[in-house]
Amino acid sequence: MSAIHDSNLIQQPFILASDHVQHLQSLFLAQSQALSIAYSNLFYHLSPFLQEFETFAPKAEGELDMEDELIRGARADMAMLNKVVIHEELRRKEGKDRDKRTIADYVNRGRMEQVRDTCRTAHGASCMNGAGHGSRLTTRGQRYAV
After folding, report:
1. What total number of domains does the chain contain?
2. Phi/psi zone of residue 138: left (φ > 0), alpha (ψ -120 to 50 degrees), beta?
3. Within-domain flag for 136
4. pTM here?
5. Would 144 be classed as within a structural domain?
6. In a domain, 145, yes or no
7. Using one digit for the tens of pLDDT, what is the confidence trace for 91-139?
8. Residue 139 counted as domain residue
């Protein structure tokens, strides 16, 4: 009888370990099912947002590209203001500022430089470093920095 008793004592830790592994497997299965439900729920609620974003992104890219062009062309635009002459009739109606002959006479260059720099900062460095179409807004490439 002692051999049977010794055999039971030897097997006891293995039985406990087996029970523990089965318990861990059931916990793993429950967590796996919970994650599957959570993922399905997230996908269900996120899908309309992603679809709308895919519609919005090309329009936003176009606007960002247009702003980029405007910001990059600001200095050339400012240089052109000296060449846009104000018609004599408009200057005569102005009265006190008849000596102002071009649009550049009405524009504060320092203030316009501040505005351009503020726009460049707000527009973002990624737009100014030559990033092309589709590089700022995309769901496929996981980039959302605007």
Report:
1. 1
2. beta
3. no
4. 0.50
5. no
6. no
7. 777 766 667 788 888 888 899 889 888 888 887 744 544 444 445 555 5
8. no
